[in-house]
Design brief:
Length: 432
Amino acid sequence: MFDILAVGPDADEAALSGRMAELERVKARAAAEQARIAVALEARRVMAARAGGPRVSRAALGSEIGLARRESPHRGERLMAMARILVADMPCTLAALESGVLSEHRAELITKEAECLSVLDRRLLDAELCGDPATVDGKGDAEITAEAKRIAYRLDQEAIVQRMRRAPAGRHVRFRPAADGMATVSVRLPAAEGRAMHTALSDAAASTLASTLPGTTVPAGLGRTHDQIMADLMVQRVTGRNPVQSPVPVTANLVLSDETLLAGGSEPAHLEGYGPIPAEIARDLVVAGALDAQGAAAVRRLYAQPGTNKLVAMESKSRAFPKALARFIALRDQICRTPYCNARIRHTDHIRPHAQHGPTSVHNGQGQCAHCNYVKEEPGWQSRTTYDRHGRHTVTLTTPTGAVYTSTAPPGPEALRVFTRDVYIARIHPAA
């Protein structure tokens, strides 16, 4: 289709820039073809179901699309939803994508605004916004979204109002690891409530900056910026504790080697729900928990096989995973084991189904998000347990189309002393 090396290292700047633009057009054209393929795959599945084959849910198909595109299952569902609308109802937007006038992301922004409209209104929006490619050429995300909203409001205001009234049901709080030992906690709320919360925090931070500690001339802000105070106030109001004055009691599981914990080792630890953290930071967390009068630090032990550092545990005779075994598997897997998913573990389930005599064991268990756990029960999905050359727990996943993907558990701490084979878990929690 194209030669990636068509522009050599000695090409002038104009040639390099032109080649970059051409490759972006190729990406957009490929995205348009992927949308057509996704719709064709869905049509095949529908025809097979009508002929007496198994019915496949949209969630399962979305997961397949996500895996094929090396995206999360959630992203796969969003891409499938966009493809349906583009191919069936919005030919002008699809053509703009295929020509490179629109990127895949901007095409998705348009289809998202069209989702709640009737087929007729989608086609009217499509023709008005993208009938002439010059209308969207050069426009950024915000401009395209605003224009699509304006047209949608005019075409069917009631549909938009109904969608907005349903939206508060989707309010939620999300936790996402960030760089440098930080995290992002986001809250999705109705706009008025979100604005009110932000204003209250901002006003309180401004008041703190303008005041002093009682009976002193020491600034109440203690050298913090307005944004830092807002963040501290949010933690204080949610947890009931001031993070500047005392550590906030949290439940945090650290997986680290004995050398890291006790001998000043440098092997990184794993903070559950976040990922790797430096050894020194892990030791600081343990010490802070131990010294905190309102918290406690406990140390438990798990065992790892010498040479591989593979965590091991006993089997259970029950169908459901016992709490301790489920916790063990969650500590091993860290995040959902479906490739590219990266969601938090919500379910612990059998790789080989219990109904097919799959044991309730660490070998046959995996941690998954709820979505992926339900999808793997769909017709045509198969999983089996293997181990990689390092002895790490690996799941081989086969989709209904025969595509094969593997997921390997993250490695455990490397600095384990063979004579103890101990992996220490420091659990910091509020005192009873």
